[in-house]
């Protein structure tokens, strides 16, 4: 009886020791600011816009005329860094109101990006 009682006490102490020591494992977390979240979302939206533009039929036709695979161009846009996406979007934002990149200009931008690989 005394032996089983000691065994029971030993098990409880062992479980408590393991629990106490494992509870003190430090964890690290950073604070994510609202600005960071907005920037990430903005880059995602800009990237989606570029991919949607590549999915347009007139752009696909022009890519084929130039000998560029549309899927390769979409993969390149998907693999662009955030800075590349923001740079391209900033250039688009500098255009006068009411104007946009023509299909030929988009094609030239995409060709330049692909050639920079």
Summary of the model, kept short:
With 117 residues, the protein is mainly alpha-helical. The protein has helices at residues 2-22, 34-55, 57-65, 70-79, 82-93, 103-115.
SSE blueprint:
Blueprint: H1 2-22, H2 34-55, H3 57-65, H4 70-79, H5 82-93, H6 103-115
Care to describe what's here?
- The protein has one domain.
- The mean pLDDT is 76.
- The chain has 117 residues and is mostly helical.
- The chain is elongated.
- It has helices spanning 2-22, 34-55, 57-65, 70-79, 82-93, 103-115.
User: How much is the radius of gyration in Å?
Assistant: 28 Å
The number of E-state strands comes to 0
Q: How many separate helices?
A: 6
The separation of the N and C termini measures: 77 Å
Helix proportion of residues, in percent? over 70%
Task: Please tell me what the overall shape is.
Answer: elongated
What is the makeup of the main sheet?
none
Proportion in β-strands: under 5%
Arithmetic mean pLDDT: 76
Quickly give the structural class. mainly alpha
* Contiguous runs where pLDDT drops below 50 for at least 5 residues: none
Number of separate structural domains: 1
- Along the chain, the helix and strand elements come as HHHHHH
List keywords for this structure.
elongated; 117 residues; single chain; 6 helices; mainly alpha; 0% strand
């Amino acid at each position: 009886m005394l032996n089983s009682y000691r065994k029971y006490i030993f098990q409880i102490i062992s479980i408590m020791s393991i629990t106490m020591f494992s509870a003190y494992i430090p964890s690290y977390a950073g604070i994510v600011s609202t600005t960071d979240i907005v920037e990430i979302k903005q880059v995602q939206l800009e990237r989606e816009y570029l991919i949607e533009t590549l999915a347009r039929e007139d752009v696909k036709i022009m890519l084929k005329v130039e000998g560029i695979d549309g899927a390769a161009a979409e993969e390149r846009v998907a693999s662009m860094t955030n800075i590349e996406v923001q740079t391209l979007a900033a250039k688009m934002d500098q255009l006068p109101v009411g104007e946009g990149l023509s299909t030929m200009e988009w094609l030239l931008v995409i060709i330049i990006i692909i050639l920079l690989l």
